Each structure stands twice: as C-alpha cells, then as structure tokens.
Amino acid sequence: MTLGLPAPDASRARHLIARFPTGRVLVVGDVMLDRFLVGQVSRISPEAPVPVVVFDHDEFRLGGAANVAHNIAALGGPVTLVGAVGEDEDAGRLAAQLAANGLSAAALIAVPDRRTTSKVRVVTTRNQQVARIDYETDGDLDTAAEDAITAVVDQHLDDVRVLLVSDYQKGVVTRRVMDHLLTRARERRVPLLVDPKVPHLDFYRGATLITPNQGEAEAAAARRIRTMEDARNAARLLMERAGVEGVLITLGERGMWLSHLEVDGSLPAVAREVSDVTGAGDTVIATLALALAAGAQPGEAAALANEAAGIVVGKFGAATVTTEELRRQF
Known about the structure:
The protein has 330 residues and is an alpha/beta fold. It has one domain (10-32, 63-114, 138-327): Ribokinase (UDP-N-acetylmuramoyl-L-alanine:D-glutamate ligase, 3-Layer(aba) Sandwich). It contains ten helices and 13 strands. The protein has helices spanning 10-18, 65-74, 89-100, 143-155, 175-188, 214-221, 228-242, 280-293, 298-312, 323-327; strands at 24-29, 31-44, 51-64, 79-85, 108-110, 118-124, 129-135, 160-166, 192-195, 209-210, 246-250, 256-260, 264-267. The strands form two sheets. It has a nine-stranded mixed beta sheet with strand order 5-4-1-8-9-10-11-12-13, with helices on both faces. A four-stranded mixed beta sheet has the order 3-2-6-7. α2 crosses α8 and α8 packs antiparallel against α9. The longest helix is centred in the last third of the chain and has 15 residues, at 228-242. The radius of gyration is 19 Å and the shape is globular. The two termini are 26 Å apart.
C-alpha cells in the first residue's frame, strides 16, 4: 500500500496555523504531573546492581490530558481542561504548573481519598532514565465525581469548536462520562476526538476520530501491523468495531496511517532526530484538534499533526511545539 496523503501547500498550511487561536478546544481526561529527579551517575550501588544517582535538581512538567492542553496552548489555541485530582500536594504542584504555562486549573475537580496521578522519573543529566515511580488511583470515578465532571463540561461548552478526550485509563473517562460527551458533541455538531485505551474501545462509538498508536491498534484489531496495507486494514477494522468516523494510527518511524470516511492514506515520518517519544501522541491529537477547529479537512489536519510530531520527538520528555516551529515546516 503506497497511497500517500497529499500535504497542504505552504499557503494553506500557514492559513490554518494562523487560525489556531480562533477555535476553543475542551479537553477532558486523565491529568498527570510528571516529576524528574535529575542527577549524575558515578558508580554502582554496593547494595544492589543499580546505579547510584547523585541528586542535582528536580523538574515538574504537565502530563496526560494536562500535556494535551499544554500543547494546544503552546500552538496558540484557547483551551479548557477538565479532569480530576486528589486533595494532596501534587494537586497544588499541578495547578502551579498549569498557571506557569498560562493554563487554568479552575475546571479540575478535587476528589477526596483519591491521588493526583504523578509519575516520578529518575534521570541522569544526559537524559537517560534510571527508574520510574507511579503514584495513582486508577479506579473509575464514583457517581458523584462523574456528576461533577459532566456539570463542569456543560459549564464550558459555549464557544467550543472541538471536544477532545485524553484517556489514560486512570478513572476519569468512564462509560457515563463518555456517553455525556458524545451526546454534547452530537447536539452541538462539533468533532469529538479520542486518544484511546483499548479496554475502553466500545466507549467511543460515535466519535469523529480515534488516534491509537501501533501497539494499541494491533491489540484492538488483533493483528500485527508490518506494512502500510496492514495499517490500512487495521484502521478500517477499528472504524467498524469502534463505530467511529476515522482512525489515525501513529506508527513511529514509519509515520502515520489515516482511514476516514472522506480520505484514506499514509503520511511518512518527518522526524530529523528522535530524542524522546514521550507525549508525542498528546502533540498529535492536540494539533489535530486545532486544525479541525480552524477548518482543516481530516487529511490536512493529519498532515499538520504529522509535522508537529516530527518536531516534538526531537525534544526530551513530554514537550510541546510552538506555532512558529510548525510554521517553519511549510
């Protein structure tokens, strides 16, 4: 399968990017805090065959749905972030990181007896990861918290052009919350995009587009993806099984495959140097959302997302892309 999607010409691409600030995106999903403990390795521990990391400094970054919102904001788009946090220190740190990046925590609900999801990575000053510790409560939200999430969503729908679900299977994207979002998307005739998790595949029926990575697509379709024809077949199967209008499969160094009611084809990878693929899926779906809000066709939106992914994988950690960086690609 060699069918490639045509990229928008430079004039069209820049026109769409210039319109990114005109379309608000409502992001609903699992927010996370990424913490990096950075140090130097000089020896192996005498207690166990592990490196001793001498602490130098720590860094905090936004992860999960919060990183999706950060990507949208970095690209100049207005965004509202809805999710759940605990009543703990990490909730405050997450709110501080949001504020530092021009984002609001006002639509995050605090759930008693629940942890704020955080991932602590021990890394060297050369960006080599030594270990990761996850703090999380990944059970589904209870009915009261679901009601709080859907009420906050309804409060922020007035000028929304795209609904975006960032599902990391940490409890926010329940069937009931997803049904509510699908209903609101139909009522308002706006696209609903989902960065999916395979166990929730049947939650997304009626969505506009889902964006699985290769591993997720293989698991959901129960088949290996070795060629672009395999990717096409898997995407088409997922469209039918999930009941969605389109599927964009990200394939790492091989690029992407988009199957949609309106278009079908591949996009080659554009990364010049790969440093870290962490959070690349967040960048892809954020760019897709803004492009669709700006009036792009699905193939055009995928092409812009592909270019953004090629930029972000050259950066360390869950990073973002700016409008200027993206504009320079065209």
